[in-house]
Amino acid sequence: QxxxxxxxxxxxxxxxxxxxxxxxxxSTFTIYKMGWYRQAPGKQRDLVATITTGGPKNYADSVxxxxxxxxxxxxxxxxxxxxGLQSEDTAVYYCNAVSAIPSRTFWGQGTQVTVSS
Length: 117
Known about the structure:
With 117 residues, the chain is an all-beta fold. It is built from no helices and 11 strands.
């Protein structure tokens, strides 16, 4: 089992920045990919960014150039640096981890990000 705990959400003005953190615990040695997804009210949960062991990163087109995902393997923590935040970025952000054997997906409880003046 893997447990994920997010932190760093909050209220920010348009153009501002936030950094989200997600700390993993439990069977972290099984994880090969971690990432962030977000869900706005009334919408489906969408990919924001992922990072795999070895470093390949993937971003949604809507956040490219503004968001940066990184991972500290020693701390079993993944980060999402969000710059140039826009109202459209308002959502609950969920941390995600995928294990290889067995193949399972884990989710955090979510952290609210609100971009508003």
